[in-house]
TrEMBL record:
Cofactor: [2Fe-2S] cluster
SUPFAM superfamilies, alphabetized: 2Fe-2S ferredoxin-like (SSF54292)
UniProt organism field: Citricoccus muralis
Domain 2Fe-2S ferredoxin-type: start-end pairs: 2-108
PROSITE patterns to which the protein is assigned, alphabetical: 2FE2S_FER_2, ADX
Pfam families tied to this protein: Fer2
A GO molecular function held by the record: 2 iron, 2 sulfur cluster binding
Record's protein name: 2Fe-2S ferredoxin
Family according to the record: Belongs to the adrenodoxin/putidaredoxin family.
Keyword Metal-binding: yes
Keywords: 2Fe-2S, Iron, Iron-sulfur, Metal-binding
Keyword Protein biosynthesis: no
Length: 109
């Protein structure tokens, strides 16, 4: 079963098992994962779903789109050039990415 693991700044970890493909932001909201806001509903217009993807999963990620690139410039917590992505733009399960681990930033707004 595809999984998304969310690591909180304080050290807590939540592992979500997906019954069907889902995006990092949407799965977080459905499962009440703290620190992921998703204000724009997944339109790459708010950056409140910012996550840091763990190194071992970076090669499997889709390219960063223009809208995502723009939003990553205005994240509340500092952008990491390699690891920062928008959780609403990354789908897990069904697209070649069956598991991912992300670090949730200290701040989203
Ligand atoms: S939910 Fe708004 S940019 Fe991802």
């Amino acid at each position: 079963m595809p999984t998304i693991t969310y690591h909180q700044p304080g050290g807590d970890t939540q592992v979500i098992e997906l019954e069907k493909p889902d995006r990092i932001m949407q799965a977080a909201l459905k499962n009440s994962v703290p620190g992921i806001v998703g204000e724009c509903g997944g339109q790459a217009m708010c950056a409140t779903c910012h996550v840091y993807v763990r190194e071992e999963y970076l090669d499997a990620l889709p390219e960063i789109g223009d809208d995502e690139e723009e939003m990553l410039e205005v994240t509340a917590s500092e952008r990491d050039e390699r690891r920062s992505r928008l959780g609403c733009q990354i789908e897990v399960g069904g697209s070649g990415l069956e598991a991912i681990e992300v670090d949730v930033p200290e701040e989203q707004v």
